[in-house]
Design a protein that fits this description.
With 257 residues, the chain is α/β, with parallel strands linked by helices. Helices cover 43% and strands 25% of the residues. It has 9 helices and 11 strands.
Length: 257
Amino acid sequence: MTTQTIVTAAMLAIGDELLSGRTKDKNIGHLADILTLSGIDLKEVRIVADEEGAIVEALNALRTRYTYVFTSGGIGPTHDDITADAVSAAFGVPCLHDPAAMTLLGDMYAKRGMEFTEARKRMARMPEGAAHIANPVSTAPGFTIGNVYVMAGVPQVFQAMLDAVVPTLDTGARMLSRAIPCPFGEGDIGTPLAEIQKAHPETSIGSYPKYDGKTFSTEIVVRARSEDVLTPAVEAVFAMVETIRAAKIAQNTSAEA
């Protein structure tokens, strides 16, 4: 459901392998893209190790601060997959083998002629009272409790679970953005750009330096939730670029004279 209020989110990526560099995260960027398109502002991302205390501390901080929290990783069959335990601890409820998840997984392994081992049964554990997040890729469900959505770390599965979740979320007005190329470096534009930001407080203005091996330039991105707010700020940025350009031409002319 689309609302006029601002809807915010955070992500908690879980796993020693992310912090060691063995695994390169692909889920943060995908989540950011999908939430931006949905009118949800991703405001914070944290990465924590497979340590229950660290997960609980981060989750409790994030879930009280933002509309939604999305987690990735730690819901597999191995001993270090402790996300379900940590989320249960954060909410103060027991972590149990969910009967419906046990049936889903038991049937899947039976069809594949594979034993439903104790390790595989770990993937059916979730906090008491949690609801399933469907997993059309590999069956083992994620889960949601409160405003927290717990999903797999494997990118293909994470993306499929997110597809199932997004239609159920409240969304806000989408953020509009306009990119303006600027041939000058941040040292030239820093002060006047700060003045433009101050004059247009309902916008968010970012500057992103570039270097082509010879010269510095900047891409300036203006963001706002309505065209009425966005357009005057964009016009001010274009005017700033032209003012700096004219000043540099005048300086060169004076030097030649």
